[in-house]
Amino acid sequence: MDYASRLPNPEAEELPKELSDLGRRIAVLNAGSRHQDLQQAYDQVVESVKRRRRILNLVQEALSQLRLDIKYLMFDLEVTRSERDELRQRLESE
Hints:
The chain is an all-alpha fold. It has one domain. Helix content is 81%, strand content 0%. The protein contains 3 helices and no strands. Helix 2 packs antiparallel against helix 3. The longest helix is centred in the C-terminal third of the chain and has 61 residues. The protein is rod-shaped and about 95 Å long.
């Protein structure tokens, strides 16, 4: 069974290689208004990527929990049905 952790995963926090490369290229540009615009746009993209990754992790964790809950409910349903059938047999045999 796959148990998702609620703790941040350092590997999941890493940025895609292309985005990291772009950040390094922006960092070596000469200072100026275009540099600032690029840096702000880059920062927004980075935040967006991190936010989407966190959301994806939360959704995956919720799905894992839902799968587990469904397994418990299916087990409970089977037990309840078998108890019902057993009780019916007892009542019919009396």
